[in-house]
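1st attempt posting a full record on here, be nice pls
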Amino acid sequence: MDNSEQEPFLENHVKLERKRRPPKSRIRWAVVALFGTYFCIAYLLMPEAWHHYLQRHPALDEVPGITETHSGIPGDPVNIALVGTREQVVGIMLQARWMPADPLTLENSLRIAADTMFRRKYVDAPVSSLYLFGRKEDLAFEFPVGNDPKQRHHVRFWESPICDSDGRPFWFGAVTFDKSVGFSHTTGQITHHIDGNVDAERDRLLAALNATGDLQETYAVPNFHEQFSGRNGGGDRWWTNGTLRVGIIQTLP
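the predicted structure (as tokens):
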């Protein structure tokens, strides 16, 4: 091949190589874009995601998973939590048509006994005290079933020192369904007996609160419980999948 034939061949080869190799400016922009993507993910998105995660999932290692009776006997399991002020917790429970329970006094105890005997409705009947964080419940609510005080949905809440980013406390609760009245299997005292499926009651209450439109969001904390079954102070068996359900109450604008 003489020089006159080689020149067009070499010229075409150079043009083909130029087409195969991207311009240096394109390579530089690709590097800049890749670095920018890494920076956004590593230094902006991931820290924000972890910050949001920690806001929603505070350290719960110090929160007892099971309540206790006054005598120190294990009670009902903790299975729900609300985030908000006391006024917000009371407000959303009333909005969901759950009534505050009456104080546990001798007069109210006699009334619930009589109402149970004669099947009269007592929508705000007292509940026995359980203990968490070394003290009895701060709030208690119930939702009656028909006219028979023997059956009712009820929940106890304890204010905790754990707060969200707005300084609103977590209220840890134990919600169960009273299915009957009888003698305690542990003490022989007259008491309500609960249904053992505490997860169903947890989900039922959260659904009722969600229906009010006053919850900002809900989420689950899996493996909150290390113990997935047990017996409460009345000797009633309960079981759970170990998940704590949390509802964040909407803040007013």
